[in-house]
Amino acid sequence: DVKVTQSSRYLVKRTGEKVFLECVQDMDHENMFWYRQDPGLGLRLIYFSYDVKMKEKGDIPEGYSVSREKKERFSLILESASTNQTSMYLCASSLYRGYEQFFGPGTRLTVL
Amino acid sequence: AQKVTQAQTEISVVEKEDVTLDCVYETRDTTYYLFWYKQPPSGELVFLIRRNSFDEQNEISGRYSWNFQKSTSSFNFTITASQVVDSAVYFCALSTTSGTYKYIFGTGTRLKVLA
């Protein structure tokens, strides 16, 4: 079974803090993704990566950056957290581009 | 433009009833994939099915069945004899790989199965 793990289930940060959300997958998938999920808005893609060192912006990249130094690890960075970044963050991976994605349990981030 | 519409925001049924979740998609691509995911109260999205645009054959897996109709751009999901454990949010999604990669989720349908 594919396993995608995220570093925290719940996180509380203060406005202006730098926040790191980490995601690790154990199935040697090339493709990894970061989404945020908000009520009524579904899942919105923040960033994705098709290969190590490679990243592409999704639909809502503003205020975020990512890092992928190793194939199995994809980190989402909030350089200066703001209250409108309070959300559920979901990491996913897929074997092939366009195929099904496998999701981690999510991190519920609250920015005060 | 690509889009996935799940018009049903929330559905409530009584256990053992059949229920159909609707999904309508828009894309100009000829090659695409359609998916359904389940998000139970625990929060983790679980992949249920993938369908490619060239395969309109319906699929059945236990109590779950999927009806793909290109003529109406729909990919509907039916749960037969629903159970309380089916209570979850269900997402339909579309992916295309031509040109700029796109993976689009609908806004989800919350299904409540009452005992």
Question: What can you see in these coordinates?
Answer:
The complex is a heterodimer of chains A (112) and B (115). Chain A has no helices and eleven strands. In chain A, the strands form two sheets. In chain A, strands 2, 4, 5, 6, 9, 10 and 11 form a seven-stranded mixed sheet that branches. A four-stranded antiparallel sheet of chain A has the order 1-3-8-7, with no helix packed on it. Chain A is an all-beta fold and 112 residues long. In chain A, a hairpin with a 6-residue loop joins strand 5 and strand 6 (56-57). Chain B has strands spanning 3-5, 10-14, 19-21, 24-26, 32-39, 46-52, 59-61, 64-69, 74-79, 88-96, 102-105, 109-114. The termini of chain B are far apart. With 115 residues, chain B is mainly β. In chain B, a hairpin with a 5-residue loop joins strand 10 and strand 11 (102-105). Helix content of chain B is 0%, strand content 55%. In chain B, strands 2, 5, 6, 10, 11 and 12 form a six-stranded mixed sheet that branches. The chains are: A mainly beta (112), B mainly beta (115). The A-B interface holds A 33, 40-43, 45, 48, 56, 88, 90, 92, 97-106 and B 33, 35, 37, 42-47, 50, 91, 95-97, 101, 103, 105-108.
Give a quick summary of the entry.
The complex is a heterodimer of chains A (112) and B (115). Chain A has no helices and eleven strands.
Helix and strand arrangement:
The complex is a heterodimer of chains A (112) and B (115).
Chain A lengths: L3 E3 L3 E4 L5 E7 L5 E8 L3 E8 L6 E2 L6 E7 L2 E6 L8 E8 L7 E2 L3 E5 L1
Parallel strand pairs in A: 2-11
Antiparallel strand pairs in A: 1-3, 3-8, 4-5, 4-9, 5-6, 7-8, 9-10, 9-11
Chain B lengths: L2 E3 L4 E5 L4 E3 L2 E3 L5 E8 L6 E7 L6 E3 L2 E6 L4 E6 L8 E9 L5 E4 L3 E6 L1
Parallel strand pairs in B: 2-12
Antiparallel strand pairs in B: 1-4, 3-9, 5-6, 5-10, 7-8, 8-9, 10-11, 10-12
